[in-house]
Design goal:
single chain, 370 residues, mainly alpha, A middle domain of Talin 1, 2 domains, 68% helix, Imelysin_sf, Iron-regulated protein A, Imelysin-like, Imelysin-like_IPPA
Length: 370
Amino acid sequence: MKKIGILFITMIALISCDSSDDSSDNGNQNNFDRSGMMTNIADNLIIPAFTDLNNDLAILENEIASFSTSPDLAGLNATRTAWLNAYTTWQYVEMYNIGKAEEVQLAFKMNVYPTNVTDIQNNILDGNADLNAVNNNDAVGFPAVEYMIYGTGNDDQEIIDFYTTDSNASLNKQYLIDLSAAMKSLTQEVLDDWNNGFRDSFVNSTENTATSALNRLVNDFIFYYEKGLRANKIGIPAGIFSSSSLPDRVEGLYSEVYSKQLATTALNAVRQFFIGQHYNSSTTGLSLSDYVTASETDANNSLSTEISNQFETAQNQLSTLDANLSSQVNTNNTAMLQTYDELQRAVVLLKVDMLQLLNINVDYVDADGD
């Protein structure tokens, strides 16, 4: 009987240990409301931003239709304004490569730059190009529209002539119309998915597993910051990954004066996501920053504060650059390199320190190191 009693107690102890391991959620021992965080992100950041983008693209589509009917300077300027407004809003959603956005490869179809002028010209002449084809990713989206309204002539009159007196004027107008229609259609598809079921599964997928929405969202956030912002907007033009600088690789190449503005907006969007700040509002809710704080055991060492401070430092450095980042590369690339360095410091905090703290594995291939 003694042996049976000892065996029974031992089994209870083992079961208790197993239960303790399960409740730790793979090493994340806190009672943080992860579903509440995901709800805040979905309802107050993602869906409102996609809704705004969808509305902005509807305006862009209407302005392009009006301009195509009667191309003139007023219509061109109205189209440019609508393009910039939508492109600015895009900076708030590009990081959310999850759900339908990932399925339709939204980022690749909206913001591959520099755009391929040869492909655009060939598509125009074709008259029936499949804009959804992978090989056209560099001939569609915001950069392609930008080329069509800024890069098709040496001045505004030449650009208007491209849509009026050019031998292919009708085809040129149709391609511009098709570009905006494709962008609007894709965004509508993603927004509809969020509003018809995906939101609910997203906010409840909070497990610490490789396939949970929570872990994928965190990985998508870091991937965007590292690749989409740090590398694409600053590092590649500055020549970090090449033998020389590449001033023609900036975002907003043809409009010339918006590359810094777009990068600044993108970094602000990253910061707002991290602290759970509602889209177009100063209100904040449960956030990744809160999750980090809840997971910390050393009250004297706040990683979330360190990350937020580094975002601010990077933003301050970015603010010193020329409005035209291509010009900045050509005149003083050292300042671009310094901006990259400040952005890079946050990569280490996010990708190494934060992921280790949250016990989340990186789910993408790292091509350039930390």
